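Support request, please re-run this one:
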Amino acid sequence: QVQVVESGGGLVQPGGSLRLSCAASGSIFSIYAMGWYRQAPGKQRELVATITNGGSPTYADSVKGRFTISRDNAKNTVTLQMNSLKPDDTAVYFCRVDSRSRATVPFIATWGQGTLVTVSS
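Re-run finished. Output below.
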């Protein structure tokens, strides 16, 4: 099994910054993609940013230029640096890891439990 643990959420004022971290551990042979999704109250979960093992990032239009995703393949960690935060960024942020336990099986997604980010004055 794979465990995914997020950290770094909290309360921040508009215009402020936060850094989210996520670590994957357990039965991991390789990881293809690591990413962040968020879910605001009453809304569906949406993609924020993902990054492949080759380092190619993808961002939601709403966060381009403000958020930066990075990963450490050796440590199986992914980080989301969030700058210029807005009240609309308020949500529970979930880390997703697409991994496999050996070379001959498909990648499967494992989600963390989420960390709350609140942007408010």
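The chain has a mean pLDDT of 96. Residues 25 and 121 are 36 Å apart (CA to CA).
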